[in-house]
């Protein structure tokens, strides 16, 4: 037998059981006695059996009423909890975010952005995974994650992407004679030890090409898969590095006065394109939309950073 119980029926029944009479239930519910009595009668018709014995003007609960009360209260409690949860979601106070980003973004940028975003959201859960930009892009394309940050690739119909062109800077040991120059060129770095990023990283080939086109010899001392480890050697005075402003600003903000590095604009100009990604075939939650807007504003600041 299928029943079509209403929330009002369950609330009215539970209140009658709590106060013990139709008149008291009507008073506490702000309804008329006939309306409460009609609701109870309708509930009994719906479930197919009587819940009360009618004795003159009193309702005496039958054993079935006490059992049904447990079920009714459980349903009402669950509905109340669901209502609170929906309100928290609407107020961006509750939910889950799944984020994937490349190593550079995961070291400083994303944790600090999340700390700011989640400061007043103690009930929001976050899963943050670090992978290569290629893997991050694939995860977003497969609609597995809410937000991704990584080096830009070709456009894909499965991804919504905001692209940011990050200028590259020259990382210089603060004790170097080049530290006072406002702009560093490839010729300034001739015969100076350089840390290079591996060819499979999009930045590596761009830096090599800049030196080749300027016909400047490149003194290749170190090679790294990513930028952040190379910056540690720059801070020790062992080499120079051409890196993106994303890595530069993350390093500066992370180490502050202990950085040991100054960053200067590099010529010829090189840019690293970074993408803020979200799935194209899955609606974004309000939480994800708010976080994407915050990340976009922060990435715009990185794109304008000049050292």
From TrEMBL:
Is Chloroplast a UniProt keyword of this protein? Answer: no
GO-annotated molecular function: DNA-binding transcription factor activity; sequence-specific DNA binding
Print the keywords alphabetically: DNA-binding, Transcription, Transcription regulation
Which branch of life, at top level? Bacteria
* UniProt entry tagged with the keyword rRNA-binding: no
**HTH lysR-type domain location, by residue?**
5-62
What Pfam families does the record point to? HTH_1, LysR_substrate
* GO BP annotation list: positive regulation of gene expression
| InterPro entries hit by this protein | LysR_HTH_N, LysR_subst-bd, WH-like_DNA-bd_sf, WH_DNA-bd_sf
**Listed PANTHER family:** TRANSCRIPTIONAL ACTIVATOR PROTEIN LYSR
Per the similarity annotation, which family is this?
Belongs to the LysR transcriptional regulatory family.
Q: What's the protein name?
A: Cyn operon transcriptional activator
- Natural source organism: Roseovarius indicus
Name the encoding gene, please.
cynR_2
């Amino acid at each position: 037998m299928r029943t079509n119980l209403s929330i009002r029926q369950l609330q009215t029944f539970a209140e009658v059981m709590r106060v013990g009479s139709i008149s008291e239930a009507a008073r506490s519910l702000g309804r008329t006695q006939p309306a409460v009595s009609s609701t109870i009668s309708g509930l009994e018709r719906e479930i197919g059996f009587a819940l009360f014995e009618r004795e003159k003007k009193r309702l005496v609960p039958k054993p079935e009423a006490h059992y049904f009360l447990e079920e009714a209260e459980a349903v009402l409690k669950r509905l109340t909890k669901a209502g609170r949860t929906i309100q928290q979601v609407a107020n961006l106070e509750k939910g889950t975010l799944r984020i994937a980003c490349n190593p550079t973004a995961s070291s400083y940028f994303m944790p600090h952005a999340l700390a700011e975003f989640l400061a007043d959201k103690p009930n929001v859960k976050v899963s943050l995974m670090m992978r290569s930009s290629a893997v991050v892009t694939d995860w977003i394309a497969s609609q597995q994650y809410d937000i991704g940050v990584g080096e830009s690739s070709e456009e894909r119909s499965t991804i919504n992407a905001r692209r940011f062109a990050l200028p590259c800077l020259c990382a210089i040991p603060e004790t170097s004679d080049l530290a006072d120059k406002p702009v560093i060129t490839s010729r300034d770095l001739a015969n100076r030890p350089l840390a290079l990023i591996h060819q499979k990283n999009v930045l590596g080939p761009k830096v090599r090409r800049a030196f080749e086109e300027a016909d400047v010899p490149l003194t290749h001392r170190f090679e790294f898969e990513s930028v952040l480890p190379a910056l540690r050697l720059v801070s020790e005075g062992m080499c120079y590095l051409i890196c993106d402003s994303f890595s530069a600003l993350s390093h500066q903000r992370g180490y502050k006065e202990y950085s040991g590095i100054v960053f200067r604009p590099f010529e010829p100009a090189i840019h690293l394109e970074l993408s803020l990604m979200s799935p194209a075939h899955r609606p974004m939650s309000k939480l994800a939309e708010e976080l994407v807007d915050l990340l976009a504003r922060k990435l715009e600041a990185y794109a304008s950073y000049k050292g």
